[in-house]
DNA sequence: TCCATATTTCCACGATACTGGAAATATGGA
DNA sequence: TCCATATTTCCAGTATCGTGGAAATATGGA
């Protein structure tokens, strides 16, 4: 049952603050951001953010590495692309109606 | 802020039963399935299923149309592909790391 | 060693979600 | 009209989630 992971990832992203955190980390790129900066950017107390980061981290969507006093969080691109592929293949069974618009978007967005 | 819809869709899919309902409806194709059959397939009481269908429906992921005594539910392919595109473009900013695997999956899955 | 900084863990409160019983609504057939 | 079927709405109980104060932990520097 591979959908257990997908479920935890959907769950993690299905919340305003956490989606915002993830988007911020994507924008930040491979360098990532320290937890404190994320908290400041979102206007959330550090302990609250910490539990949200923990949920994203358990879902494999972000990763944290200590660097000095800070912990630098980065988005996990493999995880999000895995989720997207799950939605396309396992969930939607590669249906043409789903695939085609995604393909078009992929082409115009980056590929 | 277009992400409000995406959030409600992520939320709707972030639950075991509802994800199962959606997958079942995708498998059922354009003919869809009556609510009763879905409830039976998942082993969920009809009123419980009804509220779950309602959540999926409010998120635009499924649609119900009365046909005689039954209400036939169908998956909304536009909605799910819209969500996938949102994750790729708005959320992940068309990053190559996200796009490429999705592109590859799309190619092998259907296109 | 002592202190400041960065983050997490512990804990509890309020809010929201999931579930299913009971009753209501809608449809079709006798 | 009356009844059976299909589904929804109403409602309440339990569980899970989101939040943030207070304390704990980890690191680096003086």
UniProtKB/TrEMBL annotation, chains A, B:
Record flagged with keyword Nucleotide-binding: no
Residue ranges annotated for the HTH arsR-type domain, each copy included: 1-95
Pfam families noted in UniProt: HTH_20 (PF12840)
InterPro entries: ArsR-like_HTH, HTH_ArsR_DNA-bd_dom, Metal_resp_trans_reg, WH-like_DNA-bd_sf, WH_DNA-bd_sf
GO molecular function, one term: DNA-binding transcription factor activity
NCBIfam families in alphabetical order: HTH_metalloreg (NF033788)
Protein name (Swiss-Prot/TrEMBL): ArsR family transcriptional regulator
Biological source species: Hyphomonas jannaschiana VP2
Lineage of source species: Bacteria, Pseudomonadati, Pseudomonadota, Alphaproteobacteria, Hyphomonadales
């Amino acid at each position: 049952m591979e959908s257990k992971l997908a479920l935890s990832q959907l769950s993690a992203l299905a919340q305003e603050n956490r989606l915002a955190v993830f988007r911020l980390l994507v924008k930040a790129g491979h360098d990532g951001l320290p937890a404190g900066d994320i908290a400041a950017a979102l206007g959330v107390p550090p302990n609250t953010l910490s539990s949200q980061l923990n949920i994203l981290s358990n879902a494999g969507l972000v990763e944290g590495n200590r660097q000095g006093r800070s912990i630098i969080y980065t988005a996990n691109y493999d995880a999000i692309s895995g989720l997207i592929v799950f939605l396309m293949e396992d969930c939607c069974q590669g249906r043409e109606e789903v695939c085609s618009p995604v393909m078009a978007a992929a082409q115009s967005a980056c590929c």
